[in-house]
Hints:
alpha/beta, six-stranded mixed beta sheet, two-stranded antiparallel sheet, 10 strands
Amino acid sequence: xxxxxxxxxxxxxxxxxxxxxxxxxxxxxxxxxxxxxxxxxxxxxxxxxxxxxxxxxxxxxxxxxxxxxxxxxxxxxxxxxxxxxxxxxxxxxxxxxxxxxxxxxxxxxxxxxxxxxxxxxxxxxxxxxxxxxxxxxxxxxxxxxxxxxxxxxxxxxxxxxxxxxxxxxxxxxxxxxxxxxxxxxxxxxxxxxxxxxxxxxxxxxxxxxxxxxxxxxxxxxxxxxxxxxxxxxxxxxxxxxxxxxxxxxxxxxxxxxxxxxxxxxxxxxxxxxxxxxxxxxxxxxxxxxxxxxxxxxxxxxxxxxxxxxxxxxxxxxxxxxxxxxxxxxxxxxxxxxxxxxxxxxxxxxxxxxxxxxxxxxxxx
Length: 364
């Protein structure tokens, strides 16, 4: 009993210290007071990832994170980009000035000599236990809202996690989202799976992961034991992942078709998972494991539908200490990672021979 009491006191003490020195507020008041399915309009509040800095999350008249107002056209000579996607597209838990889309806007303005306005649409489905940023069906239903902004570009951000959470029935934007739930195959029990469950209730676990996962080889080894969710890392996709690829293909086909009458180009931007960044940056060689397999597949889908592809995975080639570009316990890109991703998106736009971003803007 004395030993058990000692362990409990030490655990409680560690948790108290972790919560004191590693505070967290990942759901800001604007999300908690969401107006319908968007953050509250004209709202701001402080937010913080366990591993990140405090920052002010601000939302404009439409409930978007954006570089300007949404209720009127941008100033003359300014190009507008509408962003669709889930948490990474939104810059979740990242200070606004370090989000990938602010970086992209800066790069494009510097290269082309024209200011860029970015409007990042996001879907918030919140329950007391979970925060969900939607799926490709929900994103497709937001497309008219994006088109109404009259953007010169629409960017769709894709991550591996968007495919893992594929809803029943695959891509079908006319289905009522309340009648379907994501189909998630049971993952084989592993260290990461167990740690993620503990992390939901223990700040100490999050802090421990932050330091333990500095060892990239350890992280990669544990992730590869993550069952179905890690199967996209294999050169040969499993049948389940082939279904997810078909789901993405249908979504890109639909979005491209809806944009075609407007003449608005679509950009499909791939943002890598933490494990992909490690495999690519550190050139880790493991039999039957390919850190760029999914990025190539997404690029092929974009090409088939006439979209520009921005490869955020290959952007990590040659990056040193890549663990500093992700929230290691959380898995999202941090501010430094967003800047790498933002540079990749801007570079793809500037270099796309079939598009010629700067040339098009000069012609306008």
